[in-house]
Amino acid sequence: MVDLKIYHEDDCDPEKCTAIRMQRHDDAELFESIEEIPKYGILLNPFSEKALSKQDAEDAKNEGLVAFDCSWEKIDKIEKIKSKAKHRSLPYLVAANPVNFGKPTKLSTVEALAGALYILGEKEQAEQILEGFNWGTTFLEMNENPLETYSKADNSTEIVKKQKEFIPDENP
């Protein structure tokens, strides 16, 4: 079991916010100040050049997994975090949430955390945090092949290579 922590910017509709819902179900702990973000563990950072892989599983289990819940316009705040946390990006996945359905890499917070958990070998926890969302199983179904492939990859380099299998060719 991995402790899930979320920096919550509080700039979304509370009725649709996956982070708030996760906190209500005791699936994650929310922070509202950058200073409160844990200094260790794994920080999901879309700008990181190193992809999350099963090599990060032990650190995630020991120190936790941190995600950002904020608008994409504010996501650059992640780069300003000076911590000892290991910054990791997620490989190519497609959103199933109603706001960004079918859009690659535009995952909700719960989708990002579920994808990360799956890659880290915590498939049951990934399924559990998605239970409260009527589209949660759709996320896992849409991304079944990539998630299975990523979860078997040995390291970040292998994940980066493998994700190319799932990124659609722009020049058909």
User: H/E series, N to C?
Assistant: EHEEHEEHHHHH
Structural class: alpha/beta
Using only C-alpha atoms, the radius of gyration works out to: 15 Å
Sheet with the most strands, sense and barrel status? 5 strands, parallel
Task: Give the mean pLDDT.
Answer: 88
Sequence of strands across the biggest β-sheet: 2-1-4-3-5
Helix content: 25-40%
By DSSP, the count of extended strands is: 5
Total helical segments: 7
Tell me, what's the shape? globular
Q: What is the domain total for the residues?
A: 1
Given as residue ranges, the uncertain stretches (5+ residues, pLDDT < 50) are: none
Strand content: 5-15%
First-residue to last-residue Cα separation: 42 Å
Describe the model.
It is a single chain. With 172 residues, the chain is of the alpha/beta class. The chain has one domain (4-163). It has seven helices and five strands. A five-stranded parallel beta sheet has the order 2-1-4-3-5. Helix 3 (109-119) runs antiparallel to helix 4. The protein is globular.
Sum up the structure in keywords.
172 residues; 5-stranded parallel sheet; alpha/beta
